[in-house]
Amino acid sequence: METRQITVIQAAAVLVSTIIGVGVLALPLFAVRAADSGGPLVTFMAMLLAFVGLSLVTWLGMRFPNETIIHYSERIIGKWLAWIGSLFIIIFFAVLTSLTAREFGEVVVTSVLKSTPVEVTVIVMLLLAAISTRHGITTFAHIHTFYFPFLLVPALVIAALSLKNAEVINLLPIWGNEPGGMLKGTLTIAALFQGAFVLTAVIPSMKHPGKAMKASFWGMLVAGGLYVIIVAATISVFGSEEIKKLLWPTLELAKATSLPANILERMDAAFLAVWVTAVFTTLFSSYFFTIYSMSHLFRLKEHKLFSYFILPFVFVMAMVPQNIIQMYEIIENVGRIGLIITIAYPGLLLIVSILRKKRGNPVADNKNVDQNH
Amino acid sequence: MPTRKVRRLNAKLLMPSPSTTMDKYKGQQVSGSLGDTIAFLDGILGINEDFTVRKFNVFGQFPAAIMFFSCMVNQDSVNSDIMKALMYTPPHLIGRSIETNQLSDVIMNDSLYHSKSSLQGELTALVECILRGDTVIAVDGMKESIIITTRSVEKRSIEQPATEQVIRGPREGFIEPLGTNISLIRYRLQSPDLRIQTMEIGRRTKSKVAVCYMDGITNPALVEEVHNRLSKIDIDTVLDSGYLEQFIEDNHYSPFPQVQYTERPDKVVANLAEGRVSILVDGSPLALVVPTVFNQFYQTVEDYTERFLLMSSIRFARLIALVFSLVFPSLYVSIISYNPELIPTDFAVAVAGGRAGVPFPAVIEVIIIEISMEVLREATIRLPQQVGGALSIVGVLVVGQAAVAAGFASPITVVIIALTTIGSFATPAYNAALALRLLRFPLIILAGTFGLYGVMIGLILIANHLLSLKSFGVPYLSPLIPVDFQGLKDLLIRGPLWLMNKRPAFLDPVEETRVSESKFDELKKTSKNVLDPLNDKSE
Fold first, then answer.
1. How far is A100 from chain B (nearest CA, A)?
2. What pLDDT, on a 0 to 100 scale, did the predictor assign at position A371?
3. Of A89, A252, A327, B162, whose CB neighbour count within 10 A is largest?
4. Contact call for A112 and B452, based on CB within 8 A
5. Which positions in chain B touch A108 (Cβ < 8 Å)?
6. Is B467's Cβ below 8 Å from some Cβ in A?
7. Which residue of B has its CA nearest to A117?
8. Which chain B residues in 306-365 lie under 8 Å from chain A, judged by CB atoms?
9. CB–CB of A270 and B342 under 8 A?
10. Neighboring chain A residues of B456 at a CB cutoff of 8 Å
11. Would you place residue A46 in the very low, low, confident or very high pLDDT band (cuts 50, 70, 90)?
């Protein structure tokens, strides 16, 4: 086992870059479908819901600061039940990986590489993730920290530049016209946050697991804040009715904005290129989490051997949806199931662990003063 | 035995000698008979023409012989300091009888005018000493022979470092002999904490390798690890520090160098004072510095000698050049072939016009020009200087111009490649620039197949590789990743010296502080405008 090296900042960066991914491209569409101009509000509520889920996970992780969820679930609810739960988690994250790769593959072949088959773009992304998972969890955290600015800056730049075309009237009323759909929309968008579950694998390698809650708070705040900003910017530029006709409104937003002084005539290709990093980090997280959990489930020392082993399975799963429409249906359904796995299941574990008074051994806090807290 | 300046390692590394003649005599002692010793040494070394054996009598009464390689010793010193001193009986001993068993004491304490001398009883060790350039004196009846360090090998003078020139800063560069190089370091760092430990590496060459570090600054575990890695090297020849680098680096298959080399003593001293370890090899003008992180490759000595504001901006320019040299051609290829809508329309039209007669797709065109540029660059380095200048003019101006005129390449391509090449020259570290030069080619191919998307994939792969690299356990992108706020002051910018008051944390030094902040405040507070006209009391 590697030494505990991951700092709070790194853990927060892992969360942010895991959450922000290809989902952002379609996010405003989900938001306006649920509540028209109330999109930002729905996104905000989804963020709160996701934060509740994440704090359950974090709380659970802090009770067992030395183990991943695969291990401590066995101690909480017994070996066989936990095995089934873990299996579901692993399968769910494998599916999440494949859907992320497919979704981005579709985006690329639709908007930039029009004559490239979607299989190629999907396999390229998956290979990229697979190659990168062959390192330890410390490198995993380092990679996420490194890409962190590459996610925030382009999204914020696009949002800032779009202010030129923004109309505040498009955002009113802020609770939307039909508040009835809000709950469903909240669940759909909250599902976009479920990559944050990877924190369960990060906590056992954190320098100070006691500060995991801080990391999850900041991670959620930054990622959720960015989500809200993007939704608000997109709705204010296009208006909710227009967005309903767009497949990837965020991409259209990039297309509609231009840099001052016309340095780049159109931004969408450049934005998409930069967005490859955001998608990569998301894909990387779910891929890594899948094989990392597998190695823990089978009590293996190394997760490396799975990196290429699951590649064909993930690829085949990614190719299952027939077209974009079906893909998004599957994504929504999988997302709802995911909420059970990433929020309800850890919630259950937490309750049982409290009732049964189970706890992990506390970690002797590192004596070296952490410079980055 | 006199205490030596250079402390030998406890675990002395004597590689199994491949020389079978030497193995046969391993462990044999000097018998005491002069004839036997001469016969032994003559048998092994006598075939060489420059092996000299000169018989004489010590103090006019004890038969002795002096043996050395005539071309490796300082003859004057041998004649006047050794031969002369030994032939005459010291004035205060005239008339006293000297027993054979006292002889070694008398010679060492009373007569020899040479500070570096020792006694050695093992025959094979005598051979090694002669090979190293020492002089051996065997005296009849003595069970040990005297070894005197008389080595004198021709060396060039100390010159300006050819590859690391600065405008402001010291002008000295290392030369080949280890002793001179150590002296260049030692006079800059007159501290008892400077430790220089030597070992021998190379089964045949027995090259002397010096490991330098600062006691009380450098992490002892690091020093230990450097020794550990060096001591496990088993190679027959070590002709340059580069041989060692390839053994001690962490990832042998990475294009990125994980050990820094330098020919500047001041740079070595700066690194030692930061808490790094430096490795010098006899016969190599390049010192290695470990551990190395990526940011060292675009820093120069001058960054620290010139004022911080100016050098920060220059460092920034250097960084841009570094990025240019990596991505510029691939960005060009992907924009031209996949996303021409990104660039302003007027310019796109101009580019299309320039490319009108070019028969190849942009990716092929760029690769061809890139390769010819590499060939040209290599040729310029190999050619003698007088011809090199002419060749570069012919190559770049004439061939470039003609290629465009012939419709072989578009003018924009030539501009892009030229910028890229210049960019790669602006990177101070040659080996890092090489790595980026190499990685440019896969990036161009990726750009040709997948456009901007491919370039990003390639860059992500490179970045992930960099993030997973380690040099002696230090993450390669420190202090950027993992974030160290102290270290960020010396990453993209070069912070003011008084603010960079801590040594790099990733080196985990024993003592962290290097600049006293409170003293600096005091300096600012107590500075007076002594020559302010208001203070002029002479009126």
1. 16
2. 39
3. A89
4. yes
5. 453
6. yes
7. B450
8. 338-339, 341-345, 348
9. yes
10. 273-274, 276-277
11. very high
Residues of B in contact with A265 (CB under 8 A): 341-345, 348
Extents of the domains making up chain A: 8-355
Q: Report the pLDDT averaged over residues A280-286.
A: 94
Mean pLDDT of A7-14: 92
Chain A residues near residue B457 by CB distance under 8 angstroms: 124-125, 128, 276
Best residue in B295, B333, B460 for a mutation probing chain A (most A CBs within 10 Å): B460
Q: How confident is the model at residue B20 (pLDDT cuts 50, 70, 90)?
A: low
Q: Which CATH number fits domain A8-355: 1.10.357.20, 3.40.50.80, 1.20.1740.10, 2.30.29.80?
A: 1.20.1740.10
Compute the distance between CA of residue B321 and CA of residue B355 in angstroms, rounded to an integer: 26
What's the whole-model pTM score? 0.89
State the average pLDDT over residues B234-244.
92
Per the model's pLDDT, the better-predicted residue between A360 and B135 turns out to be B135
Within an 8 Å CB–CB cutoff, is residue B253 touching chain A? Answer: no
Q: What is the 3-state secondary structure (H, E, C) of chain A?
A: CCCCCECHHHHHHHHHHHHCCCHHHHHHHHHHHHHHHHHHHHHHHHHHHHHHHHHHHHHHHHHCCCCCHHHHHHHHHCHHHHHHHHHHHHHHHHHHHHHHHHHHHHHHHHHCCCCCCHHHHHHHHHHHHHHHCCCCHHHHHHHHHHHHHHHHHHHHHHHHHHHHHCCHHHHCCCCCCCHHHHHHHHHHHHHHHHHHHHHHHHHHHECCHHHHHHHHHHHHHHHHHHHHHHHHHHHHHHCHHHHCCCCCHHHHHHHHCCCHHHCCCCCHHHHHHHHHHHHHHHHHHHHHHHHHHHHHHCCCCCCHHHHHHCHHHHHHHHCCCCCHHHHHHHHHHHHHHHHHHHHHHHHHHHHHHHHCCCCCCCCCCCCCCCCCC
Mean pLDDT score across all residues of chain A: 88
> Which residues from A are below 8 Å from B338, CB to CB?
112-113, 269
Mean pLDDT of A299-307: 87
Shortest distance, CA B369 to any CA of chain A (angstroms): 26
Check whether B284 has a pLDDT greater than 50: yes
pLDDT 10s digits, A250-269: 988 888 887 777 777 777 88
- pLDDT at position B389 is 73
| A199 pLDDT higher than 70 | yes
Res. A363 pLDDT band, cuts 50 70 90: low
- Asked if A371's CB is within 8 angstroms of B484's CB, the reply is yes
Which among A128, A131, A269 is the nearest to B342, CB-wise? A269
Question: What tens digit of pLDDT does each residue of A144-195 get?
Answer: 999 998 888 888 888 888 888 888 888 888 877 777 778 888 888 999 998 8
Residue A223: band (very low, low, confident or very high) from pLDDT cuts 50, 70, 90: very high
CB contacts, 8 Å: A266 with chain B: 341-342
Among chain A residues, CA nearest to B453: A273
Domains of chain B: which residue ranges?
15-148, 178-292, 308-471, 495-539
- Which residues of B are less than 8 Å from A371 in CB distance? 484-486, 505
- Interface contact B434, partner A, CB < 8 A: no
Q: Which of B455, B464, B483 sits opposite A132 (nearest CB)?
A: B464
pLDDT tens for each residue of A93-150: 999 999 999 999 999 999 888 888 999 999 999 999 999 999 989 999 999 999 998 8
**Before B291, cis peptide (omega within 30)?**
yes
- Given a cut of 50, whether residue A1 has pLDDT beyond it is no
Helix (H) or strand (E) holding A275: helix A268-297
Residue B426 at interface with chain A, using a CB cutoff of 8 Å: no
